[in-house]
Each structure stands twice: as structure tokens, then as C-alpha cells.
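Lab notebook, design round three. We kept the backbone fixed and only want residue identities now. Task for the bench partner: fill in a sequence for the structure below.
Input C-alpha cells:
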């Protein structure tokens, strides 16, 4: 029940707030959209500080866990992308890429918040380290696209 409550709070409260702002204060939407990216980065940084301060002692004692979490994140990203391409292998190239992105880009912020509440330090760390392949995933997908176009 606690997991359900937290998940509902993390998902539905922001959605409700956005809808209230759109309906009651529509003039605020454009200014908010202009500052959306820096505010999102700030919120992500604050969330990470809030989550990982509890585990600082663990990370100082076990720094190799950070490297392992990063490796796990890259392996998971590769698996997710490969599975996404495999699912759409008979379709056109843009479906291959869409499948890879669909499975490869996980909502790791939600996973960080959720896992930090109900699990130990390793689970939110893997989710946080997934930010690296989350942004790097474009590079191998561009190579894949280039290779497929060259073959055709």
C-alpha cells in the first residue's frame, strides 16, 4: 500500500498541478515552458542530493559500487535497445530506432525516487547512473542508422 501511495503521489500530483495551472492560470504556461529545462535540471540535482545524502557513508566505504552501477546501467541500456530493435526488426528503420528509444529511455527519475524509499543504496544508484546511457544512447543508434542506410 505504501508503494502505491508513493507512486500515486509522484505521478498524479504533478499532473493535477499542471492541469490546474493550464485551466486557472493559462498565462503562466508560456513563462514556465521557457524556464522548464533549467528548473528540471535543478530539481533533478536537488532530488539526487536528497536521495543520496543518506548513503554517503556507504559510497565512501564502497566506491567500487559506483563503477559497477555504471556498468550495469550501460549493459541494461544495451539490452533494452537491442530488444527494442529486435521487436521491430521486420519493420522500417525508423521503427527499429523508435523501439530502441522506447525501451532504452527509462523514466529513471521515477525509479530513483521509488527505489530510494523502498530499497537500499544500490538500486537508486543504478537508476541515477542510467542517466549516462540515457543521453549517450543516441551515438550508437546514429551509427546503427548510418550502417543500415548504407546497406540499403
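Proposed sequence:
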Amino acid at each position: 500500500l505504501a508503494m502505491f501511495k508513493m507512486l500515486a503521489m509522484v505521478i498524479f500530483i504533478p499532473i493535477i498541478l499542471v492541469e490546474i495551472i493550464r485551466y486557472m492560470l493559462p498565462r503562466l504556461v508560456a513563462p514556465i515552458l521557457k524556464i522548464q529545462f533549467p528548473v528540471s535540471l535543478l530539481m533533478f540535482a536537488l532530488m539526487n542530493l536528497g536521495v543520496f545524502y543518506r548513503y554517503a557513508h556507504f559510497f565512501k566505504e564502497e566506491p567500487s559500487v559506483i563503477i559497477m552501477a555504471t556498468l550495469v546501467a550501460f549493459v541494461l541500456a544495451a539490452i533494452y535497445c537491442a530488444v527494442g530493435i529486435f521487436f521491430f526488426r521486420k519493420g522500417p528503420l525508423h521503427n527499429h530506432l523508435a523501439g530502441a528509444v522506447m525501451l532504452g529511455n527509462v523514466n529513471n527519475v521515477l525509479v530513483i525516487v521509488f527505489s530510494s524509499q523502498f530499497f537500499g543504496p544500490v538500486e537508486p544508484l543504478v537508476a541515477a547512473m542510467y542517466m549516462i546511457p540515457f543521453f549517450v544512447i543516441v551515438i550508437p543508434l546514429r551509427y546503427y542508422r548510418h550502417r543500415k542506410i548504407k546497406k540499403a
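Keep this in mind before ordering anything: DSSP finds ten helices and no strands in the chain.
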